[in-house]
Amino acid sequence: MIARAQIWPAFLMAFALFSGAFSCHAQNSNWKCVKNSDSVLVYSRKSDSANFRIIKATTELKTSLSALVSLLTDAPHHKNWVYMNKKAEILKKDNPFSWVIYSQINVPWPVTDRDIISKTRMKQDPVTKEVTIHAEADPDYLPENPDHVRIPYAVAEWHFIPQGKGRVKVVFTIEVDVGGNVPQWLVNLTAAKGPFQTMKKLRKMVKEKKYKTAELPFLREPDF
């Protein structure tokens, strides 16, 4: 039972992520704050369409849009910051704004490892400069791996929202069916750890030189 309880957080960040005080009540009443620590907030609410919990994780930090997008699209290094990720690779990239990514999630024995294939689209608002990255699971894109349970459904979004003075608010939301025989009530009970740990590592990783100095020509940084 303990092993099963540990697997949910990995799926929350497998897609594929304030320096001051936070206040949990500063959200829509449908969201429940389930974690508030180390400049990371994690919220939960029931899905309107299924018996799932939708998870939202937020943080704010001084960085650039290019740094965040470079980190998120550096698939081979997801294992360094995405909770319980053991492998990620981009299978297809049509252009800088569209790609397909495959990820494997290492979960504790005796639960079978999971994998996920997601089609991803990125766009940038020409006025606010906000970057939105939308990903949806495509379980039939490749034949199933016999050593993994394919995640059948997931919808996730990253929002990188400029706040001025070089600061960016990061918002991540996800709704997912992890597949297999893991009870949904157990999934819902253990939903906060993965997003929290991943956001903490994102805050650290994005400061590494190769991300910090990134300048992506297809993105426009805010002028303010």
Polypeptide structure, described:
With 224 residues, this protein is of the alpha+beta class. It has one domain: 2-Layer Sandwich (Alpha-D-Glucose-1,6-Bisphosphate, Chain A, domain 4), CATH 3.30.530.20. The chain is 18% helix and 38% strand. It has six helices and ten strands. Strands 1, 2, 3, 4, 5, 6, 7, 8, 9 and 10 form a ten-stranded mixed beta sheet that branches. The radius of gyration is 17 Å and the shape is globular. The termini are far apart.
Percentage beta strand: 35-45%
The helix tally amounts to 6
Q: What is the level-2 CATH architecture name?
A: 2-Layer Sandwich
Calculate Rg over CA atoms. 17 Å
CATH level-3 fold name:
Alpha-D-Glucose-1,6-Bisphosphate, Chain A, domain 4
Average residue-wise pLDDT: 84
Binned, the helix content reads 10-25%
> What is the 3D form?
globular
What is the CA-CA span between the terminal residues?
A: 50 Å
CATH class (first level) name: Alpha Beta
Element order: H for helix, E for strand: HHEEEHEEEEEEEHHH
Class by helix and strand content? alpha+beta
| Uncertain residue segments | 1-23
Integer count of domains = 1
Short description:
The chain has helices at 2-5, 8-12, 65-73, 184-189, 193-205, 209-212, and strands at residues 32-37, 40-46, 53-62, 85-95, 98-105, 114-124, 131-137, 149-150, 153-164, 167-177. The protein has 224 residues and is α+β, with helices and mostly antiparallel strands. The chain has a single domain (2-212), classed as START domain (Alpha-D-Glucose-1,6-Bisphosphate, Chain A, domain 4), CATH 3.30.530.
